[in-house]
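Milestone 3.1: sequence recovery, worked example.
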């Protein structure tokens, strides 16, 4: 998770591609409540986010050793226009539905959020 929220250019800080403006777009609660805090050094504090991600999984009785996280990287073509957070959240919901992780009906029941688990994106310049 630290990698996802590390910001910089490709080749910097161990990044394979540019990470700019990484943020939470959707989740089981409003994204602002899931967003990692950024202290003055700029490094995102992902420990709180990790605990928040684990809480519904643990509440569902999934053990600590279970692989309850599914990471899928989605990006727009370099020449595409910038997408809004709402558009990215819609795309995430579509992917969750199409790959069978959560149906559109199921995500609609997640407190009005667009996905059962938080989704992050980063835009590159």
């Amino acid at each position: 998770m630290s990698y996802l929220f590390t910001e910089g250019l490709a080749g910097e800080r161990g990044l394979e591609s540019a990470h700019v403006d990484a943020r939470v777009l959707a989740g089981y609660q409003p994204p602002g409540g899931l967003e990692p805090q950024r202290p003055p050094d700029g490094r995102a504090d992902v420990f709180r986010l990790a605990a928040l991600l684990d809480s519904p999984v643990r509440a569902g009785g999934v053990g600590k050793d279970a692989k309850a996280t599914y990471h899928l990287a989605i990006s727009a073509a370099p020449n595409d226009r910038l997408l809004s957070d709402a558009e990215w959240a819609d795309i995430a919901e579509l992917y969750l539905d199409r790959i069978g992780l959560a149906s559109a009906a199921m995500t609609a029941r997640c407190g009005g959020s667009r996905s059962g688990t938080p989704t992050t994106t980063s835009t590159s310049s």
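The two ends are 22 Å apart (CA to CA). Residues 46-59 form the longest helix (14 residues).
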